[in-house]
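It would be a great kindness if you could assist me with a short task in structural biology. I am sending you one protein, given as its amino acid sequence and as whole-number tokens for its backbone shapes. I would ask you to consider whether the tokens describe a fold that such a sequence might reasonably adopt. The full record is reproduced below for your convenience.
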Amino acid sequence: MARIVILDGYTLNPGDLSWDEFLALGDCRIYDRTPADCVAERAREAEIVLTNKTVLSREVLAQLPDLKYIGVLATGYNVVDIEAARERAIPVTNVPTYGTRSVAQMTFALLLELAHHVGEHARTVREGRWSSSADFCYWDHPLIELAGLTMGLVGLGRIGRATAELARAFGMRVLAHDPLVPADGDIEMANLEGLLRASDVVSLHCPLTEETGGLINAERLALLKPSAFLLNTSRGPLVDEQALADALNAGRLAGAGLDVLAVEPPSADNPLLRAKNCLITPHIAWATRSARRRLMDGVLANIRAFQQGRAENVVNP
């Protein structure tokens, strides 16, 4: 039976799902979290290692003589030294499609909160303000109708397209920029500068690469309308956080909704934690129970395919 180690299983399964199918695959040890200085020790005898955010560096991999397979409990796989694994012919797999609808849904949850401030208004009602109001209603922020506004999608993969469907359902015009996707007539394409200038809402749905790191910087933020919103449910380092905080605090941007930051968890002095009209959620767009169940099923399918000699979703062929 295979020797399996799951280094950081808690975020995938905090207790509402079952590990039983993993336990049936072999001698499976499951850790909620693994500190960096314990990775090599815990995985030393493993043939299969599963990780979500725990880093598997070249130095760690060199200490795992029995390792034959690495499964990433996510879509992004930058936590693994892909080249070091390739040199040893160790396949690294991911699960690319499990969270598409959940992430698109979270994108609009952030946008709708920016448009209506539902949470804040509900809080004031609980505090008794409506009960003592002289009028039958009140609002503390402009209430924004999305119909007729333009949503600009930076990245038009699966999640970008799912977000486009929701935008159209709300009556929004959709623009997209993605140099890797050819124009097909289904969605209006634009260059990045044109998209930023034209959009009322800009939503980021691109991977983190050398080219996209710091993509939304001070220069590009200056292209946005002062009334625009920026959304990021993709990768935190796509955005220059200080530049975004400066734009929000100076009123050069109306608001931002972020589910990801450059460093997670963030340091207490992250400038966005105190920026004006900046909603930040703790990287939960992927984490609906339905999406996590699909993720577990995808990881299991990847392992079984590997054990049968037909590895699937390999990111380092």
Q: What stands out?
A: The chain has a mean pLDDT of 96. DSSP finds eleven helices and twelve strands in the chain.
